[in-house]
Amino acid sequence: MTIIEEVSVPSPRDGDGGPLLEVRDLHVEFHTREGVVKAVNGVNYSVAAGETLAVLGESGSGKSVTAQAIMGILDMPPAKIPQGEIRFRGEDMLRMSGEDRRKIRGRRIAMIFQDALSSLNPVLSVGYQLGEMFRVHHGMSKKDAKAKAIELMDRVKIPAAAARVNDYPHQFSGGMRQRIMIAMALALEPELIIADEPTTALDVTVQAQVMDLLADLQREYNMGLILITHDLGVVADVADKIAVMYAGRIVETAPVHELYKRPAHPYTRGLLDSIPRLDQKGQELYAIKGLPPNLLRIPTGCAFNPRCPKAQDICRTDIPPLLPVTEQDGAELPGRASACHFWKETLHG
Amino acid sequence: MAELSKNDEPQDATPNVSEVDVVDAHSEAESVAAIEAPVERGEPILQVRGLVKHFPLTQGILFKKQVGAVKAVDGVSFDLHQGETLGIVGESGCGKSTVAKLLMNLERATAGEIFYKGQDITKLSGRALKAVRRNIQMVFQDPYTSLNPRMTVGDIIGEPFDIHPEVAPKGDRRRRVQELLDVVGLNPEYINRYPHQFSGGQRQRIGIARGLALNPEIIICDEPVSALDVSVQAQVINLMERLQDEFNLSYIFIAHDLSIVRHISDRVGVMYLGKMAEIGTDEQIYDHPTHPYTQALLSAVPVPDPEARESRERIILTGDVPSPANPPSGCRFRTRCWKAQDKCAEEVPLLAIPERFKDTDSPAAHESACHFAEEKDVVHA
User: Fold this and answer.
1) Cys-Cys link to A183, which of A64, A156, B44, B60 (CB 3.0-4.6 A)?
2) Quick one: A118 exposed, middle or buried, by C-beta within 10 A (0-12, 13-18, 19+)?
């Protein structure tokens, strides 16, 4: 595969060994008529090249808003970023000029959205839309751009790419459209890809194809990948590390194997216990009581306290910080942290 | 009823389903009496035979001419027993939701029969049909669009009583609605609220309360929890299981999430492109699948257990589901099947217990529509 080599993207791919992207104490709020919606309340995470970080959370947990803040595609207003840093290769993107930011967006950080049909322009052929990347960013001729588009479609395993390059989005199936979205995100060989629920709209058999493709391409190009999802199954398949979000905060981070084996936060434990199993028939499902919080009125203290079986007085008053957790004998657990006052009981109990 | 085009008459793909005890009703009153009669637990309450639904494809504006048909459901047969949950799984476009609509009589079947307590509901009308409809209710997928935003919760749940006033006399309705709210775990004082004041999970509870209003015997649930968050999904599933015990309901549970279907179902049918590929108890289907499509489907499910993933065999199918307007000849799965032979293109495999497992106690001895049915465990590590 040669396309990417020919395209000279000014990207310091070698890097300095530090994280590719680092989000520090990010806050995002939306100013609405009903009040201030605090969607993200101090998120910290980082991704290295070649690494997959899964951000897991339910609707309203702030996982997508964080991604949009990283991409710089939040509508501001109503959104506002009162504090925080988003460092890409050490540079804070929030303090950059709009023009510098644009140079990064799409070219060095690309995004794959959930709904491929509404993310593609229905009145332009997919070849035109793929070629646009090369025409706009590299000033290629129409003909060359189309040739590149065909190569890309081949790359994401669309059969008979040359014959289908002039087809329109509606002529492709859901899985094929999602492949085209992946091709588009890959076109400029970004260093980081953010995939927001990339397979949620797809059937399981197609979902497996698309996730495999994404993982292969990531390995090949040594990209960082932030995978945003609510599906604990998809995460287990591809992620290296996981950040679990609840009400705009990260409540737990862990390497993927550790998290499933021994969760250190009652919310994570509740989520894992509430999914039925495929390989055996269980008894009654464990259900986390209550509802996710209204972001206009996040509970004081730990946002999860009204639903938590372990909640004590301290949980209603003090916000638990995200702190590293350890083994019972004090041995370190690298990469693990929990934002629970009672992580010890949850992890070891 | 639309006519079937000549050379694709649907074969009855299920030669060995049990005979239906057809109730001979000569008058409407007799029909109604048969419908009102109770069915014993474990006896078939709903029997579907050779069900077909073709949606015509037309061309031309003034003079419409049929140029083909989308074969959404093409010869499906199964039984639903009183008190059980029959899960139906399959990918989008396999016809599972069309089956739901046909069972509700919201769509007219192109061919085939649906026997409810021995009465073919596709042929009923008038009072008898109304009585059937009272007894078969539905819970829809999307809790946001299936509730009228301009009606209060009380009106939504109470609306079935307008059509079937015999269930709850006028003066009693408010109390009945409040009872129903309580049954599904909502505060009865919310009766005057509007749908937008509720979360997704609560709305789905309202949908369930509406389904329960007429004391039905069968509830057809079309993807009832797929729009809900994981933590809320478990609550709704538990509620549905509790209601089934409490009100002695039979469920047809349609979903694409195989783990949830296994959890709630007693028996499971796997559909592919308008046909039933395999049907059996949850243990037979999940632990001893014999149809290659079931095996591929199960192996593709992402399991929330990274260790199991590494030791589990995964079958990644190539390609997409073919169009139901132009399905492959013979076995419909053959275009994506790794076992396909010439025979698969020529002969439609019947949904039957595979010859080699017949008369054995093996859990693989359940109905599977494959010429080369073979047991293969793909779920366990």
Assistant:
1) A156
2) exposed
Q: Which of B253, B272, B296 is closest to B72 using CA atoms?
A: B272
Chain A residue closest in CA terms to B237: A285
* Residue B16 binned pLDDT confidence (cut-offs 50, 70, 90): low
In a domain, A34, yes or no: no
Helix (H/G/I), strand (E/B), else coil: B76? strand
Residue among B306, B270, B249 at smallest CA distance from A54: B306
Write down the pTM of the prediction. Answer: 0.83
The residue from A239, A260, A293 where one domain ends is: A239
Within this chain, do residues A262 and A223 fall inside the same structural domain, yes or no?
no
In this structure, the answer to whether residues A115 and A233 fall within a common structural domain is yes
Residue A157 has pLDDT above 70, yes or no: yes
Residue A235 touches partner B, C-beta closer than 8 Å: yes
Residue B263's nearest CA partner among A256, A292, A287 is A287
Count of CB pairs separated by less than 8 Å, A with B: 133
pLDDT of the residue at A158: 81
Distance in angstroms between the alpha carbons of the first and the last residue of chain A = 52
User: Which residues of A fall within a CB distance of 8 Å from B232?
Assistant: 291-292
Whether A203 sits inside 8 A of B298 (CB atoms) is: no
Backbone conformation region of residue B42, classed left if phi is above 0, alpha if psi is from -120 to 50, else beta:
left
| Same structural domain, A124 and A266 | no
Please report, for residues A333, B104, B328, the alpha-carbon distance to residue B56 in angstroms, rounded to integers and kept in the order given: 62, 20, 18
Structural domain that includes position A333:
252-348
Q: How many CB atoms lie within 10 A of CB A1?
A: 9
CB contact under 8 A, A209 and B258: no
> How many percent of chain B have pLDDT more than 70?
93
The number of domains in chain A is 2
Cβ atoms of A70 and A20 within 8 Å: the answer is no
Does residue A38 lie in a domain region?
no
Residue A7: pLDDT band (50, 70, 90) is: very low
A259-272 pLDDT, tens digit each: 888 899 999 998 88
pLDDT value, residue B9: 46
Interval A280-327: pLDDT, tens: 777 788 888 888 888 888 888 898 989 888 888 888 888 898 888 888
Prior bond to A266 cis, omega within 30?
no
